[in-house]
Backbone:
């Protein structure tokens, strides 16, 4: 159990990639702080983690709101005394795929979900990681940050590009404190949310999407989670400021 004794905070952990990350971290021995506004779905994940024998604290805090983030971190430190691993996974897209049709409120909401949440939680966690002289932060970005979104909005592409820029800045700033900051950039991933979105597409549109992926299929949430958990481990101790692409070859750096 490579991560035994570590405390991991995972935002957006009730569904999809966040849920897969939470369960994999528990398998590796970490105790967990799970955060999601979907209380019902989060309770199911909490039960799965508890069944594995790991300690778990859950919260329905909205991590796009600074006051709620500060209260969350205070609660976590009161319960566990530290946070060793932070996975900023909250995100999502909304609005049309065309720039001209995108409304200002849609753009603002997508930036709030994906970029502002990453900034707020990271900012709140940094002081405790500095005090302990160690930490791992992994931000979930997207291949959309590099090639534009294959399924989402222009706001999503812009917000995820912001996550990559923030990751590099934080990595340079926090390296002297032995805190690594990296990103994972998934391609189109077969989460419940994505499956529901693609169900509204025509068969021709779905085939066209898959045809753009050299490996010829969508990612699984487990494949993305594996990359995230790797960056949390000791083996990744000399990796910081990096983006790990998990996209089936859509973007080859």
Residues:
């Amino acid at each position: 159990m490579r991560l035994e004794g570590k405390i991991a905070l995972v935002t957006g952990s009730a569904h999809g990639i966040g849920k897969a990350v939470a369960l994999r971290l528990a398998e590796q021995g970490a105790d967990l702080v799970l955060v999601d506004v979907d209380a019902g779905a989060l309770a199911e994940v909490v039960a799965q983690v508890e069944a594995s024998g790991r300690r778990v604290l859950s919260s329905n805090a909205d991590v796009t709101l600074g006051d709620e983030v500060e209260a969350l971190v205070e609660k976590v430190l009161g319960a566990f005394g530290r946070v060793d691993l932070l996975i900023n996974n909250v995100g999502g897209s909304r609005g049309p795929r065309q720039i001209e049709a995108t409304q200002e409120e849609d753009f603002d909401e997508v930036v709030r979900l994906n970029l502002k949440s990453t900034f707020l939680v990271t900012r709140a966690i940094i002081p405790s990681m500095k005090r302990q002289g160690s930490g791992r932060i992994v931000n979930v970005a997207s291949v959309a940050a590099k090639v534009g979104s294959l399924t989402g909005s222009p706001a999503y592409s812009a917000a995820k590009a912001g996550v990559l820029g923030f990751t590099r800045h934080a990595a340079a700033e926090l390296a002297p404190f032995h805190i690594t900051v990296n990103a994972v950039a998934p391609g189109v991933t077969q989460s419940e949310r994505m499956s529901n979105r693609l169900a509204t597409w025509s068969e021709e549109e779905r085939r066209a999407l898959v045809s753009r992926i050299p490996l010829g299929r969508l990612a699984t949430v487990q494949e993305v989670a594996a990359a995230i958990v790797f960056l949390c481990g000791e083996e990744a101790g000399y990796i910081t400021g990096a983006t790990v692409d998990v996209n089936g070859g859509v973007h080859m750096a």
